[in-house]
Write a structure and sequence with these properties.
Elements (H helix, E strand, L loop, with lengths): L1 H15 L1 H8 L2 H10 L8 H14 L3 H4 L1 E7 L6 H12 L3 H18 E2 L3 E10 L4 E9 L4 E8 L13 E3 L7 E2 L6 H13 L2 H11 L33 H18 L10 H16 L12 H4 L9 E2 H19 L4 H16 L8 H11 L5 E3 L2 E2 L6 H13 L1
Length: 404
């Protein structure tokens, strides 16, 4: 995940620049799809920890070249973020103290100003050499065993208390107090006035009188809608989780463009053709527009998931994907973009073919991947995937058992 996540990031920066990478990281649909295509459980809250951890390990050696620095992490690592930002500021000449203050303020907003029942445990701060940044935080509700992710983006941010989030991912539930909402400005000002004029004891007495009254908010004051991603509780990838039209377009493009653009790759016995299918989804993560990521589950069909959903990770395919992407990015640095262009054509072809192409249903696709998983070096947290048992072998096994 470290290797593939880093090389996909490099490809995006080469094609579209750092600002576009940050915009994508701030989009919860793209972030979830990115995590799925590199092999993390597509529906899991752990995707946030895994993606940020993989990017921190993978991009740190490339920070001088890309000008991107990944700070923070989970638990105790999150509390080291201000110090990491100060160090980066000293090295590259940006205001590390200001960035450290923003890191603390963002954490305070999502832990105190936004009171939604989720306790922060992860804080990832990604900053560029020009001082632009994206922040991804996650909180956990232990009672419900659910997580909520908060995305921040420096681009276009005018206030840390005026609807500052780029997105908040998670199911709306319970009573939420959001003092970072633009509609809460009067409430924030009123709280300061009350604290100065009444003091804590009188505030409590006054509150008992006001309790139960619902404030009236005009439509003009309403907060604009953010990208709204809700992940299901089930582990399995179901047909309703996947845009089958787009999936069939990915698979058809791999069959159509693969032999033309990846001739040398397809000479690798038993791996090449399957790798092109994975590359079709990797190409979309690199080149796809925001509207293409409404079904993050689809991207788990590229390399499976570590929990065997939708199938064990085919390590031979995974490694081949990394090799192809590394080769494309390496040549792209030298001004030879034929392989990166081939990936772009693969993505373009997917969009053309999905308009009319059809194919097998999801169960059939997943069953085929399970059957072939052993030959591709299938592995999950449960270990190596055993070879599939054919009906003939199964019948012979039943016969041997009955004889014994």
């Amino acid at each position: 995940m470290t290797r593939l996540g880093a090389v996909i990031t490099e490809a995006i920066v080469q094609h579209y620049g750092r600002d576009e990478l940050f915009r994508r990281l701030a989009n919860p649909f793209w972030f979830q799809s990115f995590g799925a295509v590199i092999g993390m459980d597509w529906h899991s809250s752990g995707i946030t920890t895994s993606v940020l951890g993989a990017l921190k390990r993978g991009l740190t050696p490339l920070s001088g070249e890309l000008g991107i620095h990944v700070c923070g992490g989970r638990g105790a690592q999150s509390r080291k973020t201000p110090g990491e930002l100060l160090d980066i500021g000293d090295r590259v000449g940006i205001d590390g103290a200001s960035l450290a203050m923003k890191s603390r303020l963002i954490a305070k907003v999502d832990s105190a100003a936004v009171q939604d029942g989720f306790d922060l445990y992860l804080h990832g701060f990604i900053v560029a050499d020009d001082g632009k940044w994206v922040v991804i935080q996650q909180g956990m509700n232990d009672e419900r065993r659910q997580a909520r992710r908060y995305h921040w983006l420096s681009e276009g941010l005018t206030s840390f208390l005026d609807s500052p989030h780029a997105a908040i991912e998670g199911r709306e539930q319970g009573e939420i107090v959001n003092l970072a909402d633009r509609r809460a400005e009067r409430s924030r000002n009123g709280q300061l006035d009350l604290l100065a004029s009444l003091g804590p004891d009188k505030i409590i007495r006054e509150f008992s009188v006001l309790e139960g009254q619902v404030p009236v908010i005009s439509k003009q004051e309403a907060q604009p809608m953010l990208p709204y991603l809700i992940m299901p509780a089930h582990h399995a990838v179901r047909q309703e989780d996947v845009n089958m039209r787009r999936l069939h377009g990915n698979l058809a493009a791999a069959a159509d463009r693969g032999p033309v653009d990846f001739e040398e790759l397809l000479l690798t016995p038993g791996v090449g053709a399957r790798t092109v299918k994975a590359l079709a989804m990797v190409a979309e993560v690199v080149h796809g527009a925001p509207c293409r990521f409404s079904d993050p589950a689809r991207f788990s069909l590229a390399h499976g998931g570590k929990d065997r959903h939708p199938f064990p990770v085919p390590l031979k395919v995974y490694d081949e994907t990394i090799n192809v992407m590394k080769s494309a990015v390496r040549k792209g640095r030298l001004g030879r973009d034929e392989e990166l262009s081939a990936l772009k054509r693969l993505d373009d072809q997917s969009r053309v073919l999905e308009r009319y192409v059809t194919g097998p249903d999801l169960k059939e696709i997943v069953a085929g991947e399970f059957d072939r998983s052993f030959s591709y070096g299938g592995r999950s947290v449960f270990g190596w995937e055993p070879p599939a048992v054919s009906e003939d072998d199964s019948a012979q096994g039943d016969l041997r058992s009955s004889k014994s």
